[in-house]
Amino acid sequence: MTDLYLWLKTAHILSLIAWMAAVFYLPRLFVYHADAVKGSPTSETFKVMERRLLKAIMTPAMIATWIFGLWLAIRGGWFTDGSLWLHLKLVFVLALSGFHGACAAWTRAFAEDRNTRPARFYRIANEVPTLLLVAIVILVVVKPV
Fold it and tell me: Taking the model in full, what pTM does it have?
């Protein structure tokens, strides 16, 4: 293993941690924001928090995770060695990226005072990234396929 590989792996893990922290936290903000009165100081504060979390942490961390992860996969030759675990992992990472996109849409809806979903919806949605992360970690560590 080269030093570059280890640095790429470190960068991938660190960016993933930042991405997941934000993906776990943003829907939790939506839970509280959904109960706030539109136009209230509380609602306006949530709008700022959500926008900053999405733009300054979540999206850059997702991009970095993808870049470092693809770089690792290419460097490791995993696209050409028949690694089924990697292809399944990518399916789950694409689903997580789709959830990220949904969070961006929900952030926009809150910013424009167009949210119609109750707090319960976001409580349930908040569980999706946990399930995806469990599947991704199992595939990476155990490589069952």
Answer: 0.94
